[in-house]
Amino acid sequence: MKRKAQGNSNRIQKKKSKQRMKGSLARHLTVQLGQQQQIQNSSRFQNLLDSDSETELFPSTSPLDFDSDANITDEKDFILSQDFFCTPDYITPDPPAVPSTLDCNNEETIQCPKSPEKLKTVRSKRQRLDGISETSFSFSISAPQEASELSMYTSANNDIKTAKTYESGKIHSYVSQSAVALRCRVMPPPCIKNPYLQDASILDIDPFDNHRSKCAGLYPAVIGGDGLSRYRSDFHEIEKIGDGNFSRVFKVLKRIDGCMYAVKHSTRQLHKDTERRKALMEIQALAALGSHENIVGYYSSWFENEKLYIQMELCDHSLSINKFSNLFTEADVLEAMHQIAKALQFIHEQGIAHLDVKPDNIYVKNGVYKLGDFGCATRLDRSLPIEEGDARYMPQEILNENYDCLDKVDIFSMGITIYELVRGSSLPESGTQLLNLREGKLPLMPGHSMQFQNLLKVMMDPDPTRRPSARELLENPIFERARKDTKNK
Ligand SMILES: Nc1ncnc2c1ncn2[C@@H]1O[C@H](COP(=O)(O)OP(=O)(O)OP(=O)(O)O)[C@@H](O)[C@H]1O
Ligand SMILES: [Mg+2]
């Protein structure tokens, strides 16, 4: 094996090479972080680089001699950092518009902490490992965590370990902001049981129990706004597409795969652990359900600035009554009803009720209807808290706190939703008209078949047990007839 070159003649070469390495690292950072983040972080990294340049990066070996053991170690570290930062630039869209902030709340413009006075920084691998509590980074990473996150984890750890200094015999460990940011992103939240999953044996196993005490709660601090924004670094925001009561939804481009998604985030910060757990129920329900053509696709979720972000399939629009009220014929609504009934059958068979079926929560993508917004989803067996959705779409029994037939609540909500779509104007907030509807007293709908009107009536029967199940609904011959009519036209 080729060993390191010796002697003074290598000094100049070594210095040049060091500069090359430094330049190369800076270039990688420039490429990877994009201009905006570069502005914010370059000073931090530059500081690191500058401080490194005052000490021996490769104290006893030539930097050009990568065959030496020590250099192999350093080279490995360098490659790891490189691996992390190497997001292909060619698919990276324009950086977000505001250069000095990564978040509109300006929560991420955190000053880099002052480095402690450095007498000597040692970068040998052995010493970097010394004194760092491995347990403090030993949170288990769950299987689905992305491989890229693992490499970031490694990178962040290296960064943290590197930032250890020695002064007057005392060891000072400080953690750079960039390292904190990276660590924040890769530290998994504590493993919490998904209460929507049917398999009880899974619920009994908590492989991360050991770590509970070390990371109680959902990391209110580390998932805060003091680091890089995952939203900003992974996505390019295109436009706002929805405004719910508690959340905002944006159309985004995912930088790494070049595809469009919808990202929904809570409008206010979830400071309390209970609030965060409650918010998590939406994604737990989506994740437990798995994919179905008529349910909005779920990709990923994370906490950032104490807000929950959910990456979902992007749909074209919702059936929100104001915009599309004129478009619905009986055949149209029957098609929508048939598809949403399939979604309901799917979720009810998994023991879950949606509890917020309404036009705003039915999305359309390429003519396919999809049920979304699982923020009120609960278990049919009432083992989870029940928080009903929009009161206008709720049957009387829910308002009376009778939760015996939660699947039939969804059937009522779908019935009144379809009625609203056919009528083409919003339901009243309250009053006799709404009370009548809750009692199944529908006004006649001229121009619509009696079969259709009777179906709506039975879906909105005040007695939940008389309402059809989603499966029974799907077997209704009206859908077959509507399809034939559409074909013959
Ligand atoms: N995946 C998506 N694709 C396209 N638009 C979406 C998507 N998700 C949500 N929207 C739009 O954003 C709006 C608000 O989203 P969502 O209903 O999930 O928020 P919310 O705060 O839970 O709403 P609310 O509590 O008012 O029902 C939807 O009505 C819809 O118009
Ligand atoms: Mg909604």
From TrEMBL:
SMART domains xref list: S_TKc
Q: Where is this region: Disordered?
A: 1-25
- The residues the entry assigns to the signal sequence are none
The residues that the entry says bind ATP are: K264
Q: Which UniProt keywords apply?
A: ATP-binding, Kinase, Magnesium, Metal-binding, Nucleotide-binding, Serine/threonine-protein kinase, Transferase, Tyrosine-protein kinase
Q: Name one GO molecular function term.
A: ATP binding
Reported EC number(s) for this entry are: 2.7.10.2
Q: Which SUPFAM superfamilies does its entry note?
A: Protein kinase-like (PK-like)
Which stretches does UniProt call biased (Basic residues)? Answer: 12-21
Q: Return the Polar residues bias intervals.
A: 1-11
Indicate the enzyme's highest-level EC class.
transferase
Q: Read off the PROSITE patterns from this record.
A: PROTEIN_KINASE_ATP (PS00107), PROTEIN_KINASE_DOM (PS50011), PROTEIN_KINASE_ST (PS00108)
Q: Which residues form the Protein kinase domain?
A: 235-479
Q: Which PANTHER family match?
A: EUKARYOTIC TRANSLATION INITIATION FACTOR 2-ALPHA KINASE EIF2-ALPHA KINASE -RELATED, WEE1-LIKE PROTEIN KINASE
* Membership in a protein family: Belongs to the protein kinase superfamily. Ser/Thr protein kinase family. GCN2 subfamily.
Which protein is depicted? Answer: Wee1-like protein kinase
Q: Which organism is it from?
A: Cinchona calisaya
